[in-house]
Each structure stands twice: as C-alpha cells, then as structure tokens.
C-alpha cells in the first residue's frame, strides 16, 4: 500500500504571499494544495506544519474522505477559516495525487464534465467613472462576458474594490491601513455609476457588483431595489452573513439576485441561506472551505434549493486553488459562474500549468491531477512579505465592516 511519507509547508511571495502544502507518497507522487488565507498566511502555515502534517505521515493518500473526516471531526476545535483552509490544502493535495495515480484530470474523477467550459467574470474598476468605463472596455476586449464593476466614491478614500495598477490586491501594508468609509455617499453614487456601466455595455454582458458586507440589511434592501432596472447578475455580500436570518429582510424588499459566502467556510455558515432560498449564489471557495470534498457537498445541497455556485476566486487564492475550483465547477449541475481575476506574470514563475482562459471561459487542464506544478527553486527567490487588509472607519472614527 502506498503511504504518505512527507508533508511540507512552503511559503512564497511572487507579488503576494501564497502558502502551499506539498504531500509526497512512498511511490514518489507529489500532490499540491493551496493554504493561502489573506493576511493570516503564517497562522495557517503553522496550523499545518505544527498540527496537521505530522498526522498525515503513514496514511493512505487514496482515502480522501476518511482523512477529511479525521482532520475535521477528529479534533475538538473545528470549523473556522484557519482550520478549513488547512483541511482544504490537504484535500486538494490528495485529489492531485489521486488524479496523478489514475492518470486522469480531477474533474474526470468527480464524475466527468457537465459542461464544455466554465463561465467566469473578471473585475473592472476605476478611481472615477471614466476610468471605470475604460477598464470595462478593456475587459470586453479580452472577451469577458461577465464583469464586476467598482468605482471610487467621490470623497471616500476607502472605497472597496478599486485597483491600483493592473491588478487589484487589497492587502497593501505591513500594518493595516485605516481608511475612511461613508455609507450614504456610496448609496447615492453607486446606482448612478452602475447605470452608466449598464448603458455602456452590450445587453448580453452580465454586470455584477460587490457591496462587500458594508450595508445593514435595510440599506442593502434599499440598494437592491434602486438597481433593479439594471438587471444585475448579482449584488455580492450586501451585509455580513454572521446572522443568516438578516437576509430575509433583504429578500423581502428586492428581486436583485444575491450572492454571498466568500468569507464563510462551511455548510453550517450557509445552511439557512440556502434552505430558505435567501440567496441565489453561494460563494464559498475551495481553498477556504475544506477543499473539493466539502465544497462539492455544499453545492449538492444548494442544488436542492435552486441555489447556484459562484465561487470566490481572487488573486489571493493561489493558482492551485483556482485550478481546484475549475475542476469542481466542471462537474456540478448547479454551476453559476466563477470569479477569475488572473495573476501577474511573475506568479507563473512559481506555479506552472492550470486552466486555460479563452473568450470568457476557463477550461481545466487535461494533465493528470489538478494540472498545476510548483517550482520550489523559483519560489525560494520570493521571500514572505507581511501584508494586511485595510480597516474601514466611519467619519466619527467607528470601525466599520471591511
């Protein structure tokens, strides 16, 4: 019987920090898993290195379900983003190994393709509306059929989602930057600029917008109603989902589709949202939600309630996590859309292979496993660099939801 003989945690920073788990079997097969948790990378690295990796040695890598339950149910402290990211890293690496042993891409092991390719959306943003429209035009030029639009709110330096340079990266300082936020200014401005984007785009192009947990349920209901005639594909994370019941108020006041889940990590975090059909898209990510094994169960549950997937796929999930997401996306019946921001070119020096983008879609690699390989020599050139997400404050100094 083949067994796990080594489990190593690797950290690199080609433009941003990534944490990668390397699992090696006695037969010399290597599986790669993504353990990146933005702003808490070293916490997950320690969780793996000090508490999880020693438990893997000697185990059969083919027993993915058993190992998943051993790591989740076999400990007293369960759930939460750090635990579920660590478990996800193991799970992704084990699926990578299983695919390599079987000489098949992971999506084939999950039941085969349910579609030809995976529809993706990208980000467009600008400090003002003209700059945003320019970025929207550039996204259309790259063939994207779905675009998330964000613009800087005049006088609000802490507007979420506006990139600086070619790629959006919110973690921007060695210590958290404190930024100003004004909800009323946002509520006055956002419907107007989204209307301009809608007028600018072809009617066939899907328009998405991210509120990023910054509204109360009533404010979110007000926003959703104000943009109903724009036919948004979704409004994302309208309010914090800690209290799942709060989405009932939003749902009762607007027909604008709702997506949420990117900061959540288990079925229990979205169970009520799905079962009561309080959302339309569930956005858990494969990297932060226990890997393919757990996220597939979440999506299967969501299918019963006509809730579709809309997995989180930012550039702070490594290409390994992105590849895992696309393999899963290919196989589920209730697929909705996949976030895809892309990566700076320098990232490809460390991570080789992965899905192929063309004309608004991603297609998974046909290579065995996840189709991603990690260059340890190249990775060693890029040392860890502390970076934190900003903190939002209202005008009176009160800390606001990020």
Structural overview:
- This protein has 402 residues and is α/β, with parallel strands linked by helices.
- The protein folds into two domains: 4-104, Enolase-like, domain 1 (2-Layer Sandwich); 109-367, TIM Barrel.
- Helix content is 34%, strand content 18%.
- It contains twelve helices and 18 strands.
- Strands 4, 5, 7, 8, 9, 10, 11, 12, 14 and 15 form a ten-stranded mixed beta sheet that branches. The protein has a three-stranded antiparallel beta sheet with strand order 1-2-3.
- Helix 7 (217-226) packs parallel to helix 8.
- The chain is globular and about 65 Å long.
Largest sheet: 10 strands, mixed
Mean pLDDT, all residues: 96
- What's the CATH H-level superfamily name of the largest domain? Enolase-like C-terminal domain
* Number of domains as seen in the coordinates: 2
Cα radius of gyration in angstroms: 20 Å
Number of strand elements: 18
Shape annotation:
globular
Order of helices and strands: EEEHHHHEHEEHEHEHEHEHEHEEEEEHEE
Provide the CATH top-level class of the largest domain: Alpha Beta
CATH architecture group name of the largest domain: Alpha-Beta Barrel
Alpha plus pi helix count: 12
- What portion of residues is helical? 25-40%
Stated plainly, the CATH topology of the largest domain is called TIM Barrel
Distance between the termini: 48 Å
Sequence stretches where pLDDT stays below 50 over 5 or more residues: none
* Proportion of residues in extended strands: 15-25%
The chain-level structural class is: alpha/beta
């Amino acid at each position: 019987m083949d067994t796990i003989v080594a489990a190593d945690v690797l950290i690199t920073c080609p433009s941003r920090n990534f944490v990668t788990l390397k699992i090696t079997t006695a037969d010399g097969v290597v599986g790669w898993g993504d353990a990146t948790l933005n702003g808490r990378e070293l916490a997950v690295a320690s969780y793996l290195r000090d508490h999880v990796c020693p438990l893997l040695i000697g185990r059969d890598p083919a027993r993915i379900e058993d190992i998943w339950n051993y790591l989740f149910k076999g400990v007293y402290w369960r759930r939460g983003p750090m635990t579920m990211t660590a478990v996800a890293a193991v799970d992704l690496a084990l699926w990578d190994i299983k695919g390599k042993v079987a000489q098949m891409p992971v999506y084939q092991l999950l039941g085969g393709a349910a579609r030809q390719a995976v529809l993706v959306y990208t980000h467009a943003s600008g400090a003002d509306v003209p700059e945003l429209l320019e970025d929207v035009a550039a996204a259309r030029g790259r063939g994207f059929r779905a675009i998330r639009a964000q613009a800087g709110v005049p006088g609000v330096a802490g507007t979420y989602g506006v990139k600086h340079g070619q790629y959006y990266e919110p973690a921007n300082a060695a210590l958290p930057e404190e930024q100003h936020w004004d909800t009323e200014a946002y509520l006055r401005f956002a419907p107007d600029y989204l209307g301009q984007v809608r007028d600018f785009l072809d009617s066939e192009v899907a328009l998405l917008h991210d509120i990023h947990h910054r509204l109360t349920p009533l404010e979110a209901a007000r926003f959703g109603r104000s943009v109903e005639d724009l036919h948004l594909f979704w409004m994302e994370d309208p309010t914090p989902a800690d209290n799942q019941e709060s989405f009932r108020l939003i749902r009762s006041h607007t027909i604008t589709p709702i997506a949420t889940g990117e900061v959540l990590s288990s079925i229990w975090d979205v169970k009520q949202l799905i079962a009561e059909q309080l959302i339309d898209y569930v956005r858990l990510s494969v990297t932060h939600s226990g890997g393919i094994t757990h996220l597939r169960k979440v999506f299967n549950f969501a299918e019963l309630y006509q809730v579709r997937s809309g997995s989180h796929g930012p550039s702070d999930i490594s290409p390994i996590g992105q590849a895992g997401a696309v393999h899963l996306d290919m196989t589920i019946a209730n697929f909705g859309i996949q976030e895809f921001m892309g990566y700076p070119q320098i990232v490809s020096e460390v991570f080789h292979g992965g899905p192929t983008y063309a004309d608004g879609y991603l297609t998974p690699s046909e290579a065995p496993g996840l189709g991603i390989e990690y260059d340890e020599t190249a990775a060693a050139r890029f040392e860890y660099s502390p970076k934190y997400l900003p903190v939002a404050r209202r005008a009176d100094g009160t800390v606001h939801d990020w």
